[in-house]
Specification:
alpha+beta; TATA-Binding Protein; six-stranded antiparallel β-sheet; 3 helices; 6 strands
Length: 112
């Protein structure tokens, strides 16, 4: 099963709903009211949690015993495309990123 997760951090000035934020970020737009993410810290933690990984400019690919994920990012969001990621690994990934005060939202499937 494939799914896309989108993470961002809402600031007090955010006026859009979660689906509206998701749509704008998927379209490549900047969203007023989002707080910059600590991307380097999040990526470092992802690499520690999922040691079987490869990182290229703008892409982190992590593998588990049953699946994989691809993470891409901007200063406002982190998008994770999950490929057959077991439920426990998916939840571990979500919990780890949410520990940075980010919210998770299912994104419409991408055309991978």
């Amino acid at each position: 099963m494939q799914s896309d997760l989108l993470f961002w951090k809402a600031g007090p000035a955010l006026k859009l709903s979660a689906p509206e934020v998701t749509r704008e970020l998927i379209w490549g737009e900047e969203v007023d009211g989002l707080v910059d993410l600590p991307i380097r810290d999040i990526l470092d933690r992802l690499k520690a949690e999922f040691p079987d990984h490869d990182e290229k400019t703008g892409l982190l690919v992590g593998r588990t015993s049953g699946g994989a994920f691809e993470a891409t990012w901007s200063w406002q969001h982190l998008k994770v495309h999950c490929h057959d990621l077991p439920a426990a690994d998916r939840q571990r990934l979500i919990d780890m990123i949410e520990s940075f005060d980010c919210m998770a939202c299912e994104a419409p499937p991408s055309k991978h």
